[in-house]
Amino acid sequence: MVSFAAGGFVLASHPMLLQDIFDKILQNISDPTLAATLKNTINTAVQQRTTVGLVGLAVALYSGINWMGNLREAIRAQSRDVWERSPQDQEKFWVKYLRDFISLIGLLIALIVTLSITSVAGSAQQMIISALHLNSIEWLKPTWRLIGLAISIFANYLLFFWIFWRLPRHRPRKKALIRGTFLAAIGFEVIKIVMTYTLPSLMKSPSGAAFGSVLGLMAFFYFFARLTLFCAAWIATAEYKDDPRMPGKTQP
């Protein structure tokens, strides 16, 4: 809905583009009744762009807050010493939604920064090589790719470190936190690389051009949540020889 509203604002600000779309409809559709119906539908969508956009934003915000709440509760459940929640863990309704809203905004900002760093690191390497006139040195290209990959993984590491440190009520053990966060950072980089190669091929089909961005966004957050929960469970259940909770160890 937000995408359609954005398209409506673009068409409303560019009347020539809207008229060009109408001309294309008349040229490619022989049935005048169907062409008129499509024209009226587009006109209605453009006129109601503000309402559609606000409703879409409200639905997206509500869904995002609930998604963030479910993710936070799942991570907290895995990090608790006991499975059942104690009455002291219960939060007021408005406190829960406010906390989830702040966490969602923080997560979105962190994701945008992480993806921006990945994009900048990937595009800047060729500019630096060209500016320093180092194009003839072949071994520098894979070296710069590795540097860009390392920067991207480091940004991913900071993102997941914030998630695994900020969201649980009980602070995880440092060794498990460091290793689990590194595992999540590498997995997230793999997800980004796979989606970078699969999304362009998805957009080539007519249905992909219409809904590819929405499906890609849903797939991205699905795999992101699965990876986050898997690594959170790994952090919560990791055991080491120096762990006092290991069998045979006495509690201090």
UniProtKB/TrEMBL annotation:
Subcellular location: Cell membrane
Pfam families on file: Virul_fac_BrkB (PF03631)
InterPro entries xrefs: IM_pro_YhjD, Virul_fac_BrkB
UniProt keyword Cell inner membrane present: no
Keywords assigned: Cell membrane, Membrane, Transmembrane, Transmembrane helix
Membrane topology: Multi-pass membrane protein
Domain of life: Bacteria
Residues passing through the membrane, by range: 101-124, 144-165, 177-197, 209-236
GO cellular component, one term: plasma membrane
Cited NCBIfam families: inner membrane protein YhjD
Protein name: tRNA-processing ribonuclease
Organism of origin: Escherichia coli
UniProt gene name: yhjD
